[in-house]
Predict the structure.
Amino acid sequence: MSGFDKVVNTYAEALDGLQDGMTIIAGGFGLCGIPEGCIARIREMGVRDLTIISNNCGVDDFGLGLLLEGRQIKKMVSSYVGENAIFEQQFLDGELEVELTPQGTLAEKMRAGGAGIPAFYTATGYGTPVGEGKEVREFNGRNYILEEAVTGDFAIVKGWKADRYGNVIYRHTAQNFNPMAATAGRITVVEVEEIVEPGKLEPGTIHTPGIYVNRLIQGEFEKRIEQRTLTE
Amino acid sequence: MALSRQQMAMRVARELRDGYYVNLGIGIPTLVANYVPEGMEVMLQSENGLLGMGPFPTEEQLDADMINAGKQTVTAITGASIFSSAESFAMIRGGHVDLTVLGAFEVDVQGNIASWMIPGKLVKGMGGAMDLVAGADNIIVTMTHASKSGASKLLPECTLPLTGAGCIHKVVTDLAYVEINDGKFWLKERAPGVSVDEIVSKTAGEMVVPEVVGEMGF
């Protein structure tokens, strides 16, 4: 690596420094746009007691579900979980802590974390279990709760194309949480389907500017479909 | 007779207006997309980051990178846009979506809604429901009027943990169309062939019943 070149050649380099007890922010929605290679490498590394901030937690044998299988997750911060039996079992056994967070609040927590905003007020969750114990403030006659931003020791992100400088473009709805996750990691690792030379991507179409990206790797993706639904 | 799921969706569809951006929840709300009146254009928002959701794909169109908030494979219509989750919830929270339709377990006379958590059962999460009810001015709840055992879902006060407080004003059930204002339910329409007495008997919260309650049209 030199200058702005963010490319690494192995997932071992991409996740170098990841240790037990760290917090990881992961992009993806269900199994769509998930950093498959990073997850596989984390499984292989065997690091434990991880806090994972991600909208979902994969399925039994794919996505973040692989880290559940390895008993590597201590805590999940998600809006919707439990698509898998291992998750349910570990949660019921008390091995796994879960902090359910409204989807929009979760996205904004990541965005704020990456943007240097420590907390924000939102009406989402006021008067519900989510608002319990949180500061309430009234603006223009309406009540809002204070939600704190999140950041990660690592962020793991799935993009479509990137140039060597780490300018990333996402494809279709595989974008989802990835752009916010990319901003919120102390070390942000992006895996993409194709790496091109700087200048090949139109500057105005970049979703994630390279300034947020520390390590970039070209991966191979299974892209498993969770709910294959066809027109009748 | 109580309305079918399709008929409930048809009644909700009457609330659509040309040029509306609409978010439809899972279940009965999803069916509303089948009853958009001829000649009317609405654009469906899917909170994972798609405005202009189209039908399910053909085998040839199938694309793992193209899903809706229910994680089903979908297509995008001409004129669609795709964006991040933060952008998606900015448009939801910021009140830019014209109509939100979602299901519920319970609503009450204060406009509270409970739709995501039954204590003692495994809780999977609220997904985007709390953001949707907090952000939208125009929300329609669709649900059966009473549970299978006959217990009313229109209550003086929700018994389950809330999804949102004071945010619901319109409810389409299998028996009636009800509005919520000033701490009361207001019976507006009844399903064809359903008596006012039946609706009243299955509504636990205080309900204002006008002298004449018209039948629902579709």
